Amino acid sequence: MASDGDQTVYKPLGLLAELTHRCPLGCPYCSNPPALDRRDDELDAVTWARVFREAAALGVLQVHLSGGEPGARRDLVEIVAAARTAGLYSNLITSGVGLTTATLGKLADAGLDHVQISIQDSIAASADKIAGYDGAFARKNALGREVVRLGLPLTINVVVHRANIERIPDMVDRALALGATRVEIAHAQYYGWALKNRAALMPRRDQVERAAVQVEDLRRLHQGRIVIDAVVPDYYARFPKPCVGGWGRRSLNVTPSGRVLPCHAAESITGLEFWNVRDRALADIWMNSPACRAFRGTDWMPEPCASCSRRDIDFGGCRCQAFALTGNAAATDPVCQFSPAHHLVADLAADQADVPYDYRRQITRAALAKADTA
Ligand code: SF4
Ligand code: FES
């Protein structure tokens, strides 16, 4: 921890490394930005290795290897080995589509510590429709079984929305059947593609309330067998979540082309200046970049946050959500019942429509098969 004028700078603990924005799936709630980084702009493995060394020196303990689909990188084994060499605990966040079992074995040999696979639903047809990819459900299940067979810990991630919220118990059963040690049930967060698809994804209040009771029941039922983590849906809450544990406080994100973001959606806020690992050391960026400093600490807060007893608990909520809903990234998150813009959240939650998803652009199966030749 260092003090920098009016801002206390903590060590970041987690690094989200977005290795690529390429992905075979097209999930309508994808957290990637609507404008995706191009393949020829992606950092190479040597640069990622340097970023991992710098991250470890800065205090980072865990690297989450994410995308897009990280399996679309031909040099993924090299990147995982670099994380191990840097002394970082590595978590591969994969769609489960685009990685062969042979590559998974090589990743395990290279020192991969943990795998997280997302499932879209407990029913194959619905899961494939949400993913925008025929056969995704079967491939995810097959890869999940292989993760467990290799002795790697497996987390199943479930993004909950109107199309699957009624089947949370079935999805937990699926995670148990695969041998997962943890399941993360996260309601869709409305940034990026989810913001575009908000009306199609938004669950009803009665569904959300029933789901919350179910999660508690499932925790009791499966205690000791599987850990169930749950992220509550913002739009029906009274207080906002402490998004990313506070801006520029404990985690950072590096995009495929090397821009350093305080959170994965930070580029949705216009006017922020992001520095790039191609030009500067990670420690310099973390300490001094305009984007990391923009909402660090509490001095930037307006009322009602500035004098609120919860300001060191939720850090005023989510800057990206404040910007998306009010046009002002420094505003109190409208999810908060004390926000002068709180009425917006109720209005938007009521705006539901059974319209087709606007799927994000995908990469073709042929390109994916070519990528996974490691
Ligand atoms: Fe959190 Fe600000 Fe609301 Fe207080 S007023 S609960 S600090 S968002
Ligand atoms: Fe950016 Fe919450 S997603 S601060």
Which key features would you list for this structure?
alpha/beta, binds FE2/S2 (inorganic) cluster, nine-stranded mixed β-sheet, 374 residues, binds iron/sulfur cluster
> Radius of gyration over alpha carbons?
20 Å
Unreliable residue runs: none
- Which sequence of SSEs, written as H and E, runs from N to C? EEEHEHEHEHHEHEHHHEEEHHHHHH
How far is it from the N-terminal to the C-terminal residue, by CA?
40 Å
Oligomer: single chain
Portion in helices? 25-40%
What order do the strands of the largest sheet run in, or round the barrel if closed? 9-8-7-6-5-4-3-10-11
Query: What form results from the Cα inertia axes?
Result: globular
If helices are DSSP runs of H or I spanning 4 or more residues, what is the number of helices? 15
Q: What is the residue-mean pLDDT, rounded to a whole number?
A: 92
Structural write-up:
The chain has 374 residues and is α/β, with parallel strands linked by helices. 35% of the residues lie in helices and 14% in strands. It has helices at residues 45-58, 76-86, 101-109, 124-131, 136-149, 168-178, 192-196, 198-201, 205-221, 282-288, 290-293, 311-314, 319-326, 342-350, 365-371; strands spanning 2-4, 7-9, 14-18, 62-66, 89-94, 114-119, 154-160, 182-187, 227-231, 251-254, 260-261. It has a nine-stranded mixed sheet with strand order 9-8-7-6-5-4-3-10-11, with helices on one face. Strand 10 and strand 11 (260-261) form a beta hairpin. The N and C termini lie far apart (40 Å).
